[in-house]
């Protein structure tokens, strides 16, 4: 399904993969006090190149001051490959390419690439982790005690049936179903209801980029 061509109405853009990402980052923007950033969905990482090539031709793009691209690293050989894939598409569109994730370019529009779930902040030498937005969300959930129950449930499924193909997604949805106020919520909906701690240390790099937009 092709992305709906939304009009550019704000001077700063955050490009995300889909609706869940949009809900998560829209709440983050609100939480960090930004109201001049517009989110746009490019409907999956495979569609990003075509999306960005079209976006730069769209009316109003010449006035964009800041562009942030948010992408999962769950289907690539490495998170670095995810970063390089986005960089290559930015180059094809004639846009600046940052030297590394979570760093802005110096030229305008200033551009940054966010690779989820971000850096391993527990390591003495921070390295990008493979995974997706759901992995980040599992780190910053507010009801930590529920996760132990979810782990027990998934272990039962693995033992008696099969291992979920995308365990990070299964685990997050199981968690949300076990927290009364989020039962039945999708990730984006849960974000708007305060399911996640946006001031968690795991959000440090994300917060820095968003507040610098």
C-alpha-based Rg, rounded: 17 Å
Can you write the helix and strand succession as a string? EHEHEHEHHHHH
Give the structural class.
alpha/beta
Largest sheet: 4 strands, parallel
Task: Please list the strands of the largest sheet in the order they lie side by side.
Answer: 2-1-3-4
| Beta-strand residue fraction | 5-15%
Mean pLDDT: 91
Helix content: 25-40%
CATH topology assignment of the largest domain: Rossmann fold
Return the CATH class of the largest domain: Alpha Beta
Explain this structure to me?
With 213 residues, this protein is of the alpha/beta class. It has 2 domains: 12-129 and 198-211, Rossmann fold (3-Layer(aba) Sandwich); 134-191, no CATH class. The chain has helices spanning 19-31, 48-55, 79-92, 133-139, 144-160, 167-178, 187-192, 204-211, and strands at 12-16, 37-41, 66-72, 110-116. The chain has a 4-stranded parallel sheet, with helices on both faces. Strand 1 (12-16), helix 1 (19-31) and strand 2 form a beta-alpha-beta unit. It is globular. The model has no long low-confidence stretch (mean pLDDT 91).
